[in-house]
Design a protein that fits this description.
2 domains; mainly alpha; 9 helices; 0% strand
């Protein structure tokens, strides 16, 4: 996928979300009482979070699809992308004796006694390492797990797993925590307090900034092909350019 088509997909998804929020926010002008406006802003918070998490997840799923469509091998991919693609192999290594867990294809071969399972898998992965490296990258969609609570730590984990600076959005940590806390309280009916219109506008602005920066970051990654091992753009280290 070329960067223009990729960017177009993200812009299309972001546009309908912003249009919906704009329609809802426009209703504030028809509410005369400040108290009623504050109550209405509670609903806006819930919707804003829904679109924030939805766009974040969708953007990364589109990015993953773009990588998978390249049909590159694990040997050609960055270490982070290769690891994400081989997540089932690593899970089986970490949990060799876990009951009711479907074994990945890589370990579908005769195995020794149960007590040697972990060691057998260590040896087996060394034997089949070249074969693994020549397999095509196929990152599963479930690698993008927002846990229905897109906390800063969840965002850092997602960024790191795909080779991006994990501190990319740390400057917005307070805003994200604020939005998530209010969304949980309001959605679950645990907090009767309202939120002022001015406070909501600040949160919305920052959340839109995150969504825009995410789109720019992913588009640049597609343009630079930073998912390749040879790419100098690929790093999951902290962002020191800020």
């Amino acid at each position: 996928m070329n960067p223009e088509d990729f960017r177009s997909q993200l812009e299309k998804d972001l546009a309908w979300r912003q249009d919906e929020m704009r329609l809802l926010c426009n209703q504030l002008s028809s509410i005369s009482k400040d108290e009623d406006k504050e109550r209405y802003c509670k609903a806006l918070v819930v919707m804003l979070y829904s679109h924030f998490e939805g766009f974040f997840k969708m953007a990364f799923e589109i990015y993953i699809d773009a990588i998978n469509a390249e049909r590159i091998t694990h040997s050609e991919a960055s270490e982070y992308v290769a690891a994400a693609s081989l997540v089932d192999v690593f899970q089986d290594i970490e949990n060799p004796n876990k009951p009711n867990v479907k074994c990945c294809d890589f370990f579908r071969s005769p195995s020794p006694e149960e007590k040697f399972q972990r060691f057998f898998r260590h040896v087996h992965i060394i034997r089949g390492l070249n074969s693994l490296l020549e397999q095509q990258v196929n990152i599963p969609d479930n690698i993008i797990n927002t846990e229905s609570n897109l906390r800063p730590k969840v965002i850092q984990r997602l960024l790191y797993r795909l080779g991006f600076p994990y501190d990319k959005f740390d400057e917005y940590e307070e805003t994200i925590q604020n939005l998530l806390m209010r969304r949980n309280y309001f959605a679950h009916g645990e907090d009767a307090r309202s939120i002022k219109e001015t406070d909501y506008i600040i949160i919305e602005k920052n959340i839109y900034n995150i969504m825009s920066e995410l789109m720019i970051m992913l588009t640049q990654a597609v343009k630079d092909r930073s998912y390749l091992k040879s790419s100098v753009a690929n790093t999951a280290m902290p962002n020191t350019s800020q």
